[in-house]
Specification:
Chain A: Belongs to the SoxA family. The structure holds 3 protein chains of 3 kinds. By secondary structure, chain A is mainly alpha-helical. Chain A has helices spanning about 1-15, 30-35, 40-55, 95-110, 110-115, 125-135, 150-165, 175-180, 195-205, 220-230, 240-255, and strands at about 85, 90-95, 185, 190, 210, 215-220, 265. Chain A has a single domain, classed as Cytochrome c-like domain (Cytochrome Bc1 Complex, Chain D, domain 2, Orthogonal Bundle). Chain A has 11 helices and 7 strands. In chain A, a hairpin with a 4-residue loop joins strand 1 (about 85) and strand 2 (about 90-95). Chain C is elongated, with a radius of gyration of 15 Å. The chains are: A mainly alpha, B alpha+beta, C mainly beta.
C-alpha cells in the first residue's frame, strides 16, 4: 500500500519535473559506493602524484623522494594515517598538505605562497592534490594513529574543538549545526555526527576523495574549505592553522578506525 | 530546451568533425571512419535505438543479468555491469530508457572473451537500464530499474 | 595530450580480468559554461583492447558514458607477462594508447 502511494506521488512530482521523494530506507547507497570503490577514478590522480613524487622539478630541480612525512625521508607507506603530527624540524603541527608544501619548498624550491595563493585544482595546488592522492593511497586499510601527546598537538586539538562549535557567518552556523547530531542529512546525503568518534572517523577516513559530481579529486583542505563556504563564512586560508586544527580534532577522534583512502563521493 | 540540447549534441558529435580533422591530417582516416554507430547513439527512442543496432524486438531473457545499484547517489556516475549466460554472445549494448539518447555503450565480444562487462554511465533521472545482447544472430534483452537521487553539499 | 590510462590486468585460473580507467572529460555537448555558451561535445567513441596482438574487446561509447570512464572485462587465456594494450579514440580524433603486462 505504501509502495503504491509512493508510486502515485512519483507520478505527480515527475509531471512537474520536481525531485523525486524517497523514504529514508531507500536512501541506502552502500551498494552504489561499493561498486564505485573498485576502480575509483582517484587512481588517475594517484598515478599522476606517483609520477610527480619522483620527477625532478622546481628551481632546485629535485624530486620529493627525500621528503619526510613523519616516518623518515622518503617513507610514504602508512605516513598519512599518522598525520597531522608535530614536526620538530619546522616546530609546527602539519597536516599532509602543509607538510608536502614544506617539502616542495625546501627540496624543490617551489614557494609555498604559490600554493597558498593559488586555486584548487590549478597549478601547483593542483599538483599538490595529486601528490595527496598518491600518499593517502599508501595508507589505505591502515588504522588511523595520530599522536596527540605533544603539547602543540594538544593545543591544536583544543583549537579544532573550539572551531567546530564556533558559530559564525551570515547563517550563524557552526560545524556542529550540521554535524552535531545523529540522523541528519542534506537532501539525500547523510551527515555524520562528528561529535562521536564513529562519526568523526566516517568523515576523516573517507576523505580525500574523488567526487563523481564534478569528476574532481578533493583533498581534506578542499573539503574543509567547502564546509566554511557552505557555512557562509570567511574562507579559510589554505593550510592555515584553523584548518590544521580541525583536522587534528577529526583525526584524533578517528584513532583506531581504518583509512578508506582515497574515498569516492557523490 | 531539450531540443536545443539535442541539436548541440548532434553538432558536436557529428561526422563533420571527423571529416574536418581527417582532412586536416590530424587523425588517421581509419580511426575517424571506423564503424562508430552514429544512428544508434543519436536515437531518441528505444525503438529507434534497437532498430539502429539491428535488434528489432529482442526477446526477454533471464540469462542476461544486469548488475547495478537499486539506487544511485549521483546520476553522473552509475555503475552498470552486464553478464550474458547465453552461449556465443557476440555483442552487448547498454541503454538508458530515460536519457536524451538511449544508447550509452556497446561492446563487441570476440570468441574467447567472456560476455561480462562493466562500465559507468550517466543517468538524468530514475530509469530502466536495458542490456541488449546478441547471440547466435538473435537479440535478447533484460532490464533493471535504477533510482537516481540528488545528493547534499559535500557528500 | 591526453593523460595516461590506468590499466590493471590480472590472470587467475586461466581467465584474465582487465580493468581500465581513462582520463577523459566525456562532455555531452549539453552543458553550458558560466558564460552560457554550450560546451562542445568531447567524448571517447571507440576503444580497443588487445592481448598481445589479438583483439579481445572492442567498444563504442556515447556521451552518456561517465567522465573518466571505467571499463572491466574478462577473457580466457592470458599469462603473466603478456602484453595488454588499450587504445581509445574520441570524437575530436584524439587518441591514447597504453600498455601493461598481465600480472
Amino acid at each position: 500500500m505504501k509502495r503504491k502511494l509512493m508510486a502515485a506521488a512519483i507520478g505527480v512530482t515527475a509531471a512537474f519535473a520536481a525531485p523525486l521523494a524517497f523514504t529514508s530506507e531507500e536512501l541506502n547507497f552502500d551498494a552504489y559506493r561499493q561498486m564505485l570503490a573498485d576502480g575509483n577514478p582517484a587512481e588517475l590522480f594517484e598515478m599522476e602524484g606517483e609520477e610527480l613524487w619522483v620527477t625532478a622539478r622546481g628551481p632546485k630541480n629535485a624530486t620529493l623522494e627525500q621528503c619526510d612525512l613523519g616516518l623518515g625521508p622518503g617513507v610514504v607507506e602508512g605516513a598519512a594515517a599518522q598525520l597531522p603530527r608535530y614536526f620538530a624540524d619546522t616546530g609546527k603541527v602539519q597536516d599532509l598538505e602543509s607538510r608536502l608544501m614544506h617539502c616542495m619548498e625546501t627540496l624543490q624550491g617551489i614557494p609555498s605562497g604559490e600554493i597558498i595563493g593559488g586555486k584548487f585544482r590549478q597549478g601547483e595546488r593542483g599538483k599538490l592534490a595529486s601528490l595527496v592522492a598518491y600518499v593517502v593511497t599508501h595508507s589505505k586499510g591502515k588504522p588511523i594513529a595520530v599522536d596527540v601527546s605533544h603539547p602543540k598537538m594538544q593545543d591544536m586539538y583544543a583549537m579544532g574543538e573550539k572551531v567546530f562549535f564556533y558559530r559564525t557567518g551570515a547563517m550563524d552556523f557552526s560545524c556542529a549545526s550540521c554535524h552535531g547530531e545523529d540522523g541528519k542529512r542534506i537532501r539525500a546525503t547523510h551527515l555524520p555526527n562528528i561529535t562521536t568518534n564513529k562519526g568523526a572517523a566516517e568523515g576523516w577516513t573517507s576523505w580525500p576523495a574523488y567526487r563523481v559530481s564534478n569528476s574532481q579529486f578533493w583533498t581534506f583542505q578542499h573539503r574543509l574549505w567547502d564546509c566554511f563556504r557552505q557555512q557562509r563564512t570567511a574562507e579559510p586560508v589554505f593550510a592555515s592553522d584553523v584548518t590544521i586544527a580541525l583536522s587534528v580534532f577529526l583525526a584524533a577522534k578517528s584513532n583506531g578506525y581504518e583509512a578508506q583512502w582515497p574515498g569516492v563521493k557523490r | 530546451m531539450d531540443n536545443q540540447r539535442r541539436d548541440a549534441l548532434k553538432a558536436g558529435g557529428g561526422l563533420g568533425v571527423f571529416g574536418l580533422l581527417a582532412a586536416a591530417g590530424l587523425i588517421k582516416p581509419e580511426m575517424a571512419f571506423a564503424a562508430w554507430n552514429k544512428d544508434a547513439f543519436d536515437a531518441k527512442t528505444m525503438d529507434a535505438a534497437l532498430a539502429a543496432i539491428g535488434a528489432g524486438k529482442p526477446a526477454d531473457s533471464a540469462d542476461v543479468q544486469i548488475t547495478a545499484p537499486d539506487i544511485a547517489e549521483n546520476g553522473a556516475v552509475v555503475p552498470v555491469g552486464v553478464v550474458s549466460n547465453i552461449a556465443n554472445t557476440e555483442y552487448v549494448a547498454i541503454m538508458i530508457e530515460k536519457n536524451p539518447a538511449m544508447l550509452a555503450a556497446s561492446f563487441t565480444i570476440p570468441a574467447g572473451t567472456l560476455a561480462d562487462v562493466q562500465t559507468r554511465v550517466k543517468m538524468g533521472q530514475t530509469s530502466d537500464v536495458f542490456a541488449v545482447v546478441k547471440a547466435g544472430g538473435k537479440f535478447y534483452v533484460a532490464k533493471k530499474e535504477v533510482k537516481v537521487t540528488l545528493g547534499g553539499c559535500g557528500g | 595530450m591526453a593523460s595516461p590510462m590506468r590499466i590493471r590486468a590480472a590472470s587467475k585460473d586461466g581467465v584474465t580480468e582487465v580493468r581500465v580507467l581513462m582520463s577523459h572529460p566525456m562532455e555531452t555537448g549539453q552543458r553550458k559554461n558560466a558564460a552560457g555558451e554550450v560546451i562542445p561535445a568531447h567524448f571517447i567513441t571507440e576503444l580497443t583492447a588487445k592481448h598481445n596482438d589479438k583483439v579481445v574487446l572492442s567498444a563504442e561509447f556515447g556521451p552518456s558514458v561517465s567522465t573518466n570512464p571505467y571499463l572491466a572485462f574478462k577473457f580466457n587465456g592470458g599469462a603473466k607477462g603478456d602484453k595488454m594494450v588499450v587504445t581509445w579514440v574520441d570524437n575530436k580524433g584524439e587518441s591514447r594508447t597504453d600498455e601493461v603486462q598481465i600480472s
